[in-house]
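Write out this protein's structure.
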Amino acid sequence: MRSLAAIALLICACSKAPSTSTSTSTSTSTSKITNQAKQVVSSKDIGALAARLRYEAGHRPGSGLKAEQVLDAMGAAGLALADRRQFLGLTAHASYCAGGTTKDGIGISVCEYTTPADATAAKAFVDRQYAFADTTRVTHGAALLSVVGSRDAAERANRAFQAL
């Protein structure tokens, strides 16, 4: 949660920075940015995010591949995550998402959907909405695997994913 708060703080500080004028001192500008960020990032905002993550964790699909199962397979394929964490599934139209980063900097996420058709539709949405370089996304059943990093890692991940 601290990293989410830090990201929100950084976004707010960058987007709400006061206009530059010759009469504003550096210390005053820094103070205004800090105060604005404190006003925008409140416990209520973080609480809503935490509540949504809890909701998603409690309302996972009853069948299909589970993120933990897929991430375990990634580890067996030599793509073990340094740490696992839940992601906001809502951003990918998913019921639940989890993943992390390997020690080599490869990002891996798995999202769970109710049906294979939902996973396929979500992949099309995510491909359009989040078109990042070096990103490979594949579906298998009602799950969507995303790998950010090398093509070799994406191929190893996809083989392990499809074998499930």
